[in-house]
Recover the amino acids of this structure.
Protein backbone atom coordinates (compact mmCIF):
# COMPACT_ATOMS: atom_id res chain seq x y z
CA UNK A 1 0.00 0.00 0.00
CA UNK A 2 1.31 3.44 -0.93
CA UNK A 3 1.99 6.10 1.64
CA UNK A 4 -0.46 8.93 2.14
CA UNK A 5 -0.85 11.04 -1.05
CA UNK A 6 2.00 9.25 -2.76
CA UNK A 7 1.96 8.61 -6.50
CA UNK A 8 1.21 5.02 -7.53
CA UNK A 9 2.40 4.17 -11.06
CA UNK A 10 -0.21 2.67 -13.34
CA UNK A 11 -2.14 2.96 -16.58
CA UNK A 12 -5.70 3.42 -15.36
CA UNK A 13 -8.23 5.87 -16.72
CA UNK A 14 -7.17 8.40 -14.10
CA UNK A 15 -3.47 7.91 -14.90
CA UNK A 16 -4.14 8.64 -18.57
CA UNK A 17 -6.03 11.88 -17.99
CA UNK A 18 -4.32 15.24 -18.39
CA UNK A 19 -3.11 16.41 -14.93
CA UNK A 20 -4.82 19.82 -15.17
CA UNK A 21 -8.06 18.25 -16.38
CA UNK A 22 -7.89 15.76 -13.52
CA UNK A 23 -7.46 18.57 -11.03
CA UNK A 24 -10.26 20.68 -12.55
CA UNK A 25 -12.60 17.66 -12.70
CA UNK A 26 -11.91 16.81 -9.05
CA UNK A 27 -12.62 20.41 -8.05
CA UNK A 28 -15.86 20.47 -10.11
CA UNK A 29 -16.90 17.19 -8.49
CA UNK A 30 -16.20 18.61 -5.03
CA UNK A 31 -18.11 21.81 -5.81
CA UNK A 32 -21.08 19.72 -6.99
CA UNK A 33 -21.03 17.89 -3.65
CA UNK A 34 -21.16 21.17 -1.75
CA UNK A 35 -23.73 22.85 -4.00
CA UNK A 36 -26.38 20.16 -3.50
CA UNK A 37 -27.71 18.89 -0.16
CA UNK A 38 -29.90 16.14 -1.57
CA UNK A 39 -28.83 12.97 0.22
CA UNK A 40 -29.79 10.68 -2.65
CA UNK A 41 -27.69 12.76 -5.06
CA UNK A 42 -24.76 12.79 -2.62
CA UNK A 43 -25.00 9.03 -2.16
CA UNK A 44 -24.89 8.69 -5.93
CA UNK A 45 -21.81 10.94 -6.02
CA UNK A 46 -20.15 8.83 -3.32
CA UNK A 47 -20.95 5.67 -5.27
CA UNK A 48 -19.47 7.27 -8.40
CA UNK A 49 -16.30 8.28 -6.56
CA UNK A 50 -15.93 4.81 -5.05
CA UNK A 51 -16.53 3.16 -8.42
CA UNK A 52 -13.84 5.38 -9.95
CA UNK A 53 -11.40 4.53 -7.17
CA UNK A 54 -12.03 0.79 -7.42
CA UNK A 55 -11.95 0.89 -11.22
CA UNK A 56 -8.55 2.58 -11.15
CA UNK A 57 -7.11 0.11 -8.66
CA UNK A 58 -7.03 2.40 -5.63
CA UNK A 59 -9.45 0.40 -3.48
CA UNK A 60 -7.09 -0.05 -0.52
CA UNK A 61 -5.90 3.56 -0.51
CA UNK A 62 -9.49 4.80 -0.79
CA UNK A 63 -10.61 2.56 2.07
CA UNK A 64 -7.92 4.14 4.27
CA UNK A 65 -8.92 7.61 3.13
CA UNK A 66 -12.62 6.94 3.75
CA UNK A 67 -11.79 5.81 7.27
CA UNK A 68 -9.90 9.05 7.97
CA UNK A 69 -12.54 11.31 6.40
CA UNK A 70 -15.30 9.39 8.17
CA UNK A 71 -13.60 9.94 11.54
CA UNK A 72 -13.28 13.67 10.84
CA UNK A 73 -16.81 14.08 9.48
CA UNK A 74 -18.21 12.12 12.40
CA UNK A 75 -17.05 14.91 14.72
CA UNK A 76 -18.86 17.45 12.55
CA UNK A 77 -21.91 15.18 12.40
CA UNK A 78 -22.06 14.96 16.20
CA UNK A 79 -21.82 18.76 16.46
CA UNK A 80 -24.67 19.10 13.94
CA UNK A 81 -26.79 16.52 15.77
CA UNK A 82 -26.39 18.36 19.05
CA UNK A 83 -26.77 21.90 17.76
CA UNK A 84 -29.32 21.71 14.93
CA UNK A 85 -32.79 20.88 16.29
CA UNK A 86 -34.77 20.20 13.12
CA UNK A 87 -37.58 17.90 12.03
CA UNK A 88 -39.56 15.41 14.10
CA UNK A 89 -38.25 15.05 17.66
CA UNK A 90 -36.28 11.83 18.17
CA UNK A 91 -34.35 12.54 21.36
CA UNK A 92 -34.93 15.45 23.73
CA UNK A 93 -31.87 17.28 25.02
CA UNK A 94 -31.61 19.79 27.91
CA UNK A 95 -30.92 22.56 25.37
CA UNK A 96 -33.13 21.34 22.52
CA UNK A 97 -33.61 18.08 20.71
CA UNK A 98 -32.22 15.76 18.08
CA UNK A 99 -34.68 15.62 15.24
CA UNK A 100 -35.09 13.59 12.09
CA UNK A 101 -33.84 16.65 10.19
CA UNK A 102 -30.73 16.82 12.42
CA UNK A 103 -30.02 13.18 11.66
CA UNK A 104 -30.43 13.78 7.94
CA UNK A 105 -28.15 16.85 8.09
CA UNK A 106 -25.48 14.90 9.99
CA UNK A 107 -25.67 12.03 7.51
CA UNK A 108 -25.48 14.50 4.61
CA UNK A 109 -22.28 16.02 6.01
CA UNK A 110 -20.60 12.61 6.29
CA UNK A 111 -21.58 11.52 2.77
CA UNK A 112 -20.76 14.94 1.29
CA UNK A 113 -17.26 15.12 2.77
CA UNK A 114 -16.41 11.58 1.74
CA UNK A 115 -17.74 12.05 -1.80
CA UNK A 116 -15.92 15.37 -2.23
CA UNK A 117 -12.61 14.17 -0.80
CA UNK A 118 -12.16 10.92 -2.73
CA UNK A 119 -11.61 12.38 -6.26
CA UNK A 120 -9.26 15.07 -4.91
CA UNK A 121 -7.11 12.47 -3.22
CA UNK A 122 -7.25 10.14 -6.23
CA UNK A 123 -5.65 12.90 -8.31
CA UNK A 124 -2.52 12.71 -6.14
CA UNK A 125 -2.41 8.91 -6.21
CA UNK A 126 -2.69 8.87 -10.01
CA UNK A 127 -0.47 11.84 -10.92
CA UNK A 128 3.20 12.59 -10.42
CA UNK A 129 3.76 15.75 -8.40
CA UNK A 130 5.97 17.20 -11.12
CA UNK A 131 3.22 16.64 -13.70
CA UNK A 132 0.69 18.45 -11.51
CA UNK A 133 3.13 21.37 -11.10
CA UNK A 134 4.19 21.57 -14.74
CA UNK A 135 0.71 21.11 -16.10
CA UNK A 136 -0.75 23.72 -13.74
CA UNK A 137 2.00 26.15 -14.81
CA UNK A 138 1.65 25.46 -18.54
CA UNK A 139 -2.09 25.07 -18.91
CA UNK A 140 -3.71 26.78 -15.96
CA UNK A 141 -1.11 29.60 -15.99
CA UNK A 142 -0.44 29.23 -12.27
CA UNK A 143 2.87 30.99 -11.39
CA UNK A 144 5.61 28.33 -11.01
CA UNK A 145 6.54 29.43 -7.49
CA UNK A 146 2.99 28.87 -6.22
CA UNK A 147 2.55 25.58 -8.05
CA UNK A 148 5.90 24.31 -6.75
CA UNK A 149 5.09 25.46 -3.21
CA UNK A 150 1.76 23.62 -3.31
CA UNK A 151 3.17 20.35 -4.64
CA UNK A 152 6.18 20.55 -2.29
CA UNK A 153 3.79 20.88 0.63
CA UNK A 154 1.92 17.78 -0.48
CA UNK A 155 5.24 16.03 -1.20
CA UNK A 156 6.39 16.67 2.37
CA UNK A 157 3.25 15.30 4.07
CA UNK A 158 4.38 11.63 3.87
CA UNK A 159 7.93 12.72 4.80
CA UNK A 160 6.71 14.40 7.97
CA UNK A 161 4.36 11.51 8.73
CA UNK A 162 7.36 9.21 8.46
CA UNK A 163 9.38 11.50 10.75
CA UNK A 164 6.54 11.43 13.27
CA UNK A 165 6.43 7.65 13.29
CA UNK A 166 10.22 7.51 13.74
CA UNK A 167 9.96 9.90 16.71
CA UNK A 168 7.10 7.82 18.15
CA UNK A 169 9.10 4.62 17.73
CA UNK A 170 12.03 6.23 19.55
CA UNK A 171 9.72 7.24 22.39
CA UNK A 172 8.10 3.79 22.47
CA UNK A 173 11.57 2.27 22.78
CA UNK A 174 12.03 4.45 25.86
CA UNK A 175 8.87 3.07 27.45
CA UNK A 176 6.17 5.53 26.33
CA UNK A 177 2.92 3.67 25.65
CA UNK A 178 1.08 5.35 22.78
CA UNK A 179 -1.44 2.53 22.28
CA UNK A 180 -3.68 3.71 25.06
CA UNK A 181 -7.43 3.89 24.56
CA UNK A 182 -7.66 7.12 26.58
CA UNK A 183 -7.76 9.90 23.96
CA UNK A 184 -6.79 12.66 26.43
CA UNK A 185 -3.78 10.66 27.62
CA UNK A 186 -2.79 9.95 24.03
CA UNK A 187 -2.95 13.66 23.15
CA UNK A 188 -0.86 14.50 26.22
CA UNK A 189 1.74 11.97 25.10
CA UNK A 190 1.75 13.30 21.53
CA UNK A 191 2.10 17.02 22.33
CA UNK A 192 5.78 16.85 23.40
CA UNK A 193 6.57 15.11 20.08
CA UNK A 194 5.59 18.23 18.18
CA UNK A 195 8.84 19.97 19.16
CA UNK A 196 11.26 17.47 17.55
CA UNK A 197 8.88 17.16 14.60
CA UNK A 198 8.82 20.93 14.15
CA UNK A 199 12.62 21.16 14.38
CA UNK A 200 13.05 18.34 11.87
CA UNK A 201 10.47 19.83 9.48
CA UNK A 202 12.01 23.29 9.56
CA UNK A 203 15.44 21.77 8.87
CA UNK A 204 14.13 19.61 6.03
CA UNK A 205 12.17 22.47 4.46
CA UNK A 206 15.24 24.70 4.60
CA UNK A 207 17.42 22.01 3.00
CA UNK A 208 14.82 21.47 0.30
CA UNK A 209 14.61 25.18 -0.45
CA UNK A 210 18.40 25.48 -0.74
CA UNK A 211 18.62 22.32 -2.85
CA UNK A 212 15.97 23.71 -5.21
CA UNK A 213 17.72 27.08 -5.43
CA UNK A 214 21.11 25.59 -6.30
CA UNK A 215 19.37 23.69 -9.08
CA UNK A 216 18.06 26.85 -10.70
CA UNK A 217 14.61 27.15 -9.13
CA UNK A 218 14.56 30.92 -9.69
CA UNK A 219 15.28 30.55 -13.41
CA UNK A 220 12.19 28.49 -14.14
CA UNK A 221 9.73 29.93 -16.65
CA UNK A 222 6.45 28.63 -18.05
CA UNK A 223 8.14 27.85 -21.36
CA UNK A 224 11.11 25.96 -19.91
CA UNK A 225 9.05 22.91 -18.89
CA UNK A 226 10.09 19.92 -21.01
CA UNK A 227 6.94 17.83 -21.06
CA UNK A 228 3.79 18.75 -22.94
CA UNK A 229 0.37 17.82 -21.64
CA UNK A 230 -1.96 17.55 -24.62
CA UNK A 231 -5.73 17.49 -24.11
CA UNK A 232 -7.18 14.27 -25.53
CA UNK A 233 -10.77 13.33 -26.32
CA UNK A 234 -10.79 11.40 -23.02
CA UNK A 235 -9.99 14.64 -21.17
CA UNK A 236 -12.78 16.49 -23.00
CA UNK A 237 -15.22 13.69 -22.14
CA UNK A 238 -14.18 13.75 -18.47
CA UNK A 239 -14.62 17.52 -18.35
CA UNK A 240 -18.06 17.31 -19.97
CA UNK A 241 -19.18 14.63 -17.48
CA UNK A 242 -18.00 16.72 -14.53
CA UNK A 243 -19.66 19.88 -15.87
CA UNK A 244 -22.91 17.91 -16.35
CA UNK A 245 -22.64 16.62 -12.77
CA UNK A 246 -22.19 20.19 -11.53
CA UNK A 247 -25.17 21.40 -13.59
CA UNK A 248 -27.27 18.52 -12.23
CA UNK A 249 -26.24 19.46 -8.69
CA UNK A 250 -27.21 23.09 -9.26
CA UNK A 251 -30.57 22.09 -10.78
CA UNK A 252 -31.38 19.67 -7.92
CA UNK A 253 -30.33 22.30 -5.37
CA UNK A 254 -32.51 24.98 -6.96
CA UNK A 255 -35.51 22.64 -7.22
CA UNK A 256 -35.02 22.10 -3.51
CA UNK B 1 40.02 27.46 -10.50
CA UNK B 2 38.55 27.93 -7.03
CA UNK B 3 40.40 30.45 -4.93
CA UNK B 4 40.00 31.25 -1.23
CA UNK B 5 41.89 34.36 -0.14
CA UNK B 6 42.09 34.88 3.62
CA UNK B 7 38.45 33.80 3.92
CA UNK B 8 36.72 33.82 7.31
CA UNK B 9 33.04 33.33 8.02
CA UNK B 10 30.75 33.57 11.00
CA UNK B 11 27.09 32.58 10.78
CA UNK B 12 24.68 35.35 11.77
CA UNK B 13 23.41 33.37 14.75
CA UNK B 14 26.92 32.11 15.66
CA UNK B 15 29.07 33.42 18.47
CA UNK B 16 32.42 32.81 16.79
CA UNK B 17 33.69 32.26 13.25
CA UNK B 18 33.30 28.81 11.73
CA UNK B 19 36.21 29.31 9.37
CA UNK B 20 39.34 31.40 9.96
CA UNK B 21 41.69 32.87 7.36
CA UNK B 22 41.30 30.13 4.79
CA UNK B 23 43.62 30.48 1.81
CA UNK B 24 43.38 27.70 -0.71
CA UNK B 25 43.68 27.25 -4.46
CA UNK B 26 41.96 24.35 -6.22
CA UNK B 27 43.04 23.95 -9.85
CA UNK B 28 40.52 22.88 -12.50
CA UNK B 29 39.90 19.16 -12.82
CA UNK B 30 41.16 18.34 -9.32
CA UNK B 31 39.44 15.72 -7.16
CA UNK B 32 39.51 17.23 -3.68
CA UNK B 33 38.63 15.39 -0.50
CA UNK B 34 37.76 17.47 2.55
CA UNK B 35 37.76 15.81 5.93
CA UNK B 36 38.01 16.68 9.60
CA UNK B 37 36.25 16.16 12.89
CA UNK B 38 32.51 16.90 13.21
CA UNK B 39 31.87 20.65 13.48
CA UNK B 40 35.27 21.56 12.08
CA UNK B 41 33.82 23.68 9.25
CA UNK B 42 33.98 21.24 6.32
CA UNK B 43 30.43 21.84 5.10
CA UNK B 44 30.79 25.61 5.53
CA UNK B 45 33.83 25.46 3.26
CA UNK B 46 31.74 23.84 0.52
CA UNK B 47 28.87 26.30 1.08
CA UNK B 48 31.32 29.08 0.27
CA UNK B 49 32.07 27.41 -3.07
CA UNK B 50 28.52 26.81 -4.27
CA UNK B 51 27.36 30.24 -3.05
CA UNK B 52 25.02 28.99 -0.32
CA UNK B 53 27.25 31.23 1.78
CA UNK B 54 26.58 34.15 1.73
CA UNK B 55 23.39 33.95 -0.40
CA UNK B 56 21.35 31.51 1.73
CA UNK B 57 23.16 31.62 5.07
CA UNK B 58 24.05 35.24 5.77
CA UNK B 59 26.77 36.17 8.22
CA UNK B 60 30.08 37.97 8.55
CA UNK B 61 32.05 37.22 5.41
CA UNK B 62 35.71 38.30 5.36
CA UNK B 63 38.25 37.83 2.59
CA UNK B 64 37.43 36.61 -0.88
CA UNK B 65 36.19 33.45 -2.54
CA UNK B 66 36.19 33.18 -6.31
CA UNK B 67 34.90 30.39 -8.51
CA UNK B 68 36.06 30.36 -12.12
CA UNK B 69 37.05 34.01 -11.64
CA UNK B 70 33.64 35.04 -10.25
CA UNK B 71 33.46 36.59 -6.81
CA UNK B 72 30.88 34.57 -4.88
CA UNK B 73 29.53 37.64 -3.07
CA UNK B 74 28.94 39.64 -6.23
CA UNK B 75 27.70 36.70 -8.29
CA UNK B 76 24.13 35.54 -7.76
CA UNK B 77 23.36 32.02 -6.57
CA UNK B 78 21.56 31.43 -9.86
CA UNK B 79 24.71 32.15 -11.88
CA UNK B 80 26.91 30.15 -9.51
CA UNK B 81 24.56 27.19 -9.63
CA UNK B 82 25.19 26.94 -13.38
CA UNK B 83 28.88 26.45 -12.66
CA UNK B 84 28.70 24.44 -9.46
CA UNK B 85 26.50 21.38 -9.08
CA UNK B 86 25.75 20.50 -5.47
CA UNK B 87 24.54 17.37 -3.77
CA UNK B 88 23.41 18.04 -0.22
CA UNK B 89 23.89 15.78 2.77
CA UNK B 90 20.16 15.20 3.24
CA UNK B 91 19.29 13.40 0.02
CA UNK B 92 15.60 12.94 0.85
CA UNK B 93 15.10 16.68 1.23
CA UNK B 94 16.88 17.31 -2.06
CA UNK B 95 14.43 15.20 -4.05
CA UNK B 96 11.65 17.30 -5.56
CA UNK B 97 10.04 14.67 -7.77
CA UNK B 98 8.34 11.35 -7.31
CA UNK B 99 9.99 9.56 -10.24
CA UNK B 100 13.70 9.26 -11.14
CA UNK B 101 13.40 10.66 -14.66
CA UNK B 102 11.52 13.74 -13.42
CA UNK B 103 14.18 14.34 -10.79
CA UNK B 104 16.84 14.50 -13.50
CA UNK B 105 14.64 16.72 -15.66
CA UNK B 106 14.13 19.23 -12.85
CA UNK B 107 17.46 21.06 -13.18
CA UNK B 108 17.48 20.84 -16.98
CA UNK B 109 14.04 22.47 -17.14
CA UNK B 110 15.04 25.18 -14.69
CA UNK B 111 18.14 26.03 -16.71
CA UNK B 112 16.04 26.02 -19.89
CA UNK B 113 18.24 23.48 -21.66
CA UNK B 114 17.05 23.28 -25.30
CA UNK B 115 14.30 20.66 -25.68
CA UNK B 116 16.13 18.64 -28.33
CA UNK B 117 19.14 18.31 -26.02
CA UNK B 118 17.24 17.09 -22.96
CA UNK B 119 16.69 13.38 -23.82
CA UNK B 120 20.41 12.91 -24.55
CA UNK B 121 21.36 14.66 -21.32
CA UNK B 122 19.00 12.48 -19.27
CA UNK B 123 20.33 9.31 -20.93
CA UNK B 124 23.93 10.42 -20.42
CA UNK B 125 23.40 11.17 -16.71
CA UNK B 126 21.55 7.89 -16.09
CA UNK B 127 24.21 5.89 -17.91
CA UNK B 128 27.09 7.70 -16.21
CA UNK B 129 25.68 6.69 -12.82
CA UNK B 130 24.70 3.21 -14.02
CA UNK B 131 21.02 3.69 -13.16
CA UNK B 132 19.36 3.55 -16.58
CA UNK B 133 17.16 0.73 -15.27
CA UNK B 134 15.79 2.99 -12.52
CA UNK B 135 14.48 5.60 -14.95
CA UNK B 136 10.77 5.04 -14.26
CA UNK B 137 11.05 3.97 -10.63
CA UNK B 138 9.53 6.07 -7.87
CA UNK B 139 12.12 7.76 -5.65
CA UNK B 140 10.51 6.29 -2.57
CA UNK B 141 11.14 2.73 -3.76
CA UNK B 142 14.92 3.28 -4.03
CA UNK B 143 17.63 2.28 -1.57
CA UNK B 144 19.96 4.86 -0.02
CA UNK B 145 22.71 4.08 -2.54
CA UNK B 146 20.33 4.33 -5.48
CA UNK B 147 18.98 7.66 -4.22
CA UNK B 148 22.55 8.93 -3.94
CA UNK B 149 23.20 7.96 -7.55
CA UNK B 150 19.96 9.65 -8.66
CA UNK B 151 20.96 12.84 -6.82
CA UNK B 152 24.36 12.72 -8.55
CA UNK B 153 22.79 12.03 -11.93
CA UNK B 154 20.37 14.93 -11.51
CA UNK B 155 23.33 17.24 -10.91
CA UNK B 156 25.69 15.96 -13.59
CA UNK B 157 22.89 16.19 -16.18
CA UNK B 158 23.36 19.96 -15.85
CA UNK B 159 27.04 19.48 -16.80
CA UNK B 160 28.51 21.67 -14.08
CA UNK B 161 32.22 22.44 -14.20
CA UNK B 162 32.47 21.87 -10.47
CA UNK B 163 30.75 19.22 -8.37
CA UNK B 164 30.35 19.73 -4.63
CA UNK B 165 29.19 16.78 -2.54
CA UNK B 166 28.55 16.87 1.18
CA UNK B 167 29.09 13.44 2.71
CA UNK B 168 27.69 11.51 -0.25
CA UNK B 169 28.31 8.13 1.38
CA UNK B 170 27.08 8.97 4.88
CA UNK B 171 24.22 6.46 4.70
CA UNK B 172 25.87 3.91 2.44
CA UNK B 173 27.51 0.58 3.13
CA UNK B 174 31.23 0.20 2.21
CA UNK B 175 30.56 -1.46 -1.17
CA UNK B 176 28.03 1.21 -2.23
CA UNK B 177 30.41 3.95 -1.04
CA UNK B 178 33.17 2.60 -3.27
CA UNK B 179 30.72 2.28 -6.17
CA UNK B 180 29.65 5.94 -5.81
CA UNK B 181 33.28 7.15 -5.66
CA UNK B 182 34.22 4.99 -8.64
CA UNK B 183 31.40 6.44 -10.75
CA UNK B 184 32.21 9.95 -9.62
CA UNK B 185 35.91 9.59 -10.33
CA UNK B 186 35.30 8.10 -13.79
CA UNK B 187 32.88 10.87 -14.68
CA UNK B 188 35.23 13.60 -13.42
CA UNK B 189 38.18 12.19 -15.38
CA UNK B 190 36.15 11.92 -18.58
CA UNK B 191 34.73 15.44 -18.36
CA UNK B 192 37.55 17.31 -16.62
CA UNK B 193 35.17 18.24 -13.79
CA UNK B 194 36.50 19.56 -10.51
CA UNK B 195 35.11 17.44 -7.68
CA UNK B 196 34.98 18.54 -4.06
CA UNK B 197 33.81 15.89 -1.61
CA UNK B 198 33.30 16.24 2.11
CA UNK B 199 33.78 12.78 3.53
CA UNK B 200 34.59 11.12 6.83
CA UNK B 201 35.96 7.94 5.25
CA UNK B 202 39.55 9.05 4.78
CA UNK B 203 40.70 5.73 3.32
CA UNK B 204 38.12 6.13 0.56
CA UNK B 205 39.16 9.73 -0.09
CA UNK B 206 42.83 8.77 -0.30
CA UNK B 207 42.09 6.22 -3.01
CA UNK B 208 40.40 8.77 -5.27
CA UNK B 209 41.46 12.30 -4.32
CA UNK B 210 44.26 14.31 -5.88
CA UNK B 211 44.20 16.72 -2.96
CA UNK B 212 43.29 16.11 0.65
CA UNK B 213 42.18 19.03 2.81
CA UNK B 214 42.09 18.58 6.57
CA UNK B 215 39.97 21.10 8.43
CA UNK B 216 40.29 21.52 12.17
CA UNK B 217 38.35 24.04 14.26
CA UNK B 218 37.80 26.31 11.28
CA UNK B 219 41.38 26.24 10.05
CA UNK B 220 42.97 24.32 7.22
CA UNK B 221 45.74 22.20 8.71
CA UNK B 222 46.74 20.30 5.60
CA UNK B 223 46.01 20.79 1.92
CA UNK B 224 48.23 18.54 -0.13
CA UNK B 225 48.39 15.24 -1.97
CA UNK B 226 47.05 12.27 0.04
CA UNK B 227 50.56 10.81 0.36
CA UNK B 228 51.93 14.04 1.82
CA UNK B 229 49.00 14.39 4.24
CA UNK B 230 49.02 10.76 5.35
CA UNK B 231 52.68 11.05 6.27
CA UNK B 232 51.41 13.02 9.32
CA UNK B 233 49.22 10.26 10.76
CA UNK B 234 50.03 11.13 14.39
CA UNK B 235 49.04 14.78 13.89
CA UNK B 236 45.92 13.71 12.04
CA UNK B 237 44.94 11.45 14.91
CA UNK B 238 45.32 14.38 17.30
CA UNK B 239 42.96 16.36 15.03
CA UNK B 240 40.34 13.62 15.24
CA UNK B 241 41.07 12.15 11.80
CA UNK B 242 41.69 8.42 11.87
CA UNK B 243 44.17 7.30 9.22
CA UNK B 244 44.01 3.75 7.87
CA UNK B 245 45.86 1.39 10.24
CA UNK B 246 48.16 0.30 7.44
CA UNK B 247 49.22 3.95 7.01
CA UNK B 248 49.84 4.39 10.74
CA UNK B 249 51.87 1.16 10.87
CA UNK B 250 54.12 2.14 7.97
CA UNK B 251 54.56 5.67 9.35
CA UNK B 252 55.71 4.18 12.68
CA UNK B 253 58.19 1.97 10.84
CA UNK B 254 59.37 5.02 8.90
CA UNK B 255 59.92 6.92 12.19
CA UNK B 256 62.11 4.07 13.39
CA UNK B 257 64.08 4.18 10.17
CA UNK B 258 62.77 0.82 8.98
CA UNK B 259 60.85 2.17 5.99
CA UNK B 260 61.81 4.98 3.65
CA UNK B 261 59.10 4.98 0.98
CA UNK B 262 56.03 7.24 0.65
CA UNK B 263 53.07 6.95 3.01
CA UNK B 264 50.86 3.98 2.16
CA UNK B 265 47.10 4.42 1.67
CA UNK B 266 45.77 0.91 2.09
CA UNK B 267 46.53 -2.70 3.03
CA UNK B 268 47.63 -3.61 -0.49
CA UNK B 269 50.23 -0.85 -0.54
CA UNK B 270 51.34 -1.72 3.00
CA UNK B 271 51.76 -5.40 2.06
CA UNK B 272 53.92 -4.42 -0.88
CA UNK B 273 55.97 -1.99 1.21
CA UNK B 274 56.43 -4.56 4.00
CA UNK B 275 57.57 -7.15 1.50
CA UNK B 276 60.23 -4.70 0.33
CA UNK B 277 61.26 -3.95 3.94
CA UNK B 278 61.54 -7.63 4.79
CA UNK B 279 63.33 -8.54 1.58
Amino acid sequence: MAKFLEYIPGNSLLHRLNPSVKLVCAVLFAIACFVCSNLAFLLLMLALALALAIGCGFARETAGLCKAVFAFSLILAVVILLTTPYGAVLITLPWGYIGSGSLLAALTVIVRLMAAAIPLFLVFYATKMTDITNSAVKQLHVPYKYAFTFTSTVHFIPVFMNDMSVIMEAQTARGVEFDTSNIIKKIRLMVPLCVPLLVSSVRKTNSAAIAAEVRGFNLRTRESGYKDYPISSLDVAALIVCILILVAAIVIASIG
Amino acid sequence: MIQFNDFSFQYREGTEPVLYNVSLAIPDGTFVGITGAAGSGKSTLTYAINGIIPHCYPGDFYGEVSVEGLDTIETSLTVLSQLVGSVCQDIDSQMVSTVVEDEILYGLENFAVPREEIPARVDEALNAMGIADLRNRTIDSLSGGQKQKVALASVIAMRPRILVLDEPTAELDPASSVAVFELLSTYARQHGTTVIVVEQKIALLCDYADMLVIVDQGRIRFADSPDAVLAHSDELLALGVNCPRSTTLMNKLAMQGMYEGPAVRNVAQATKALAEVLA
About this structure: The interface with chain A takes residues 50-52, 56, 77-78, 81-82, 84-86, 88, 90, 92-94, 96-99, 102, 105-112, 115, 118, 136, 138, 140, 154-155, 158 of chain B (CB under 8 Å). The CA atoms of residues 124 and 157 of chain B lie 7 Å apart. Chain B has 13 helices and ten strands. The mean pLDDT of chain B is 90.
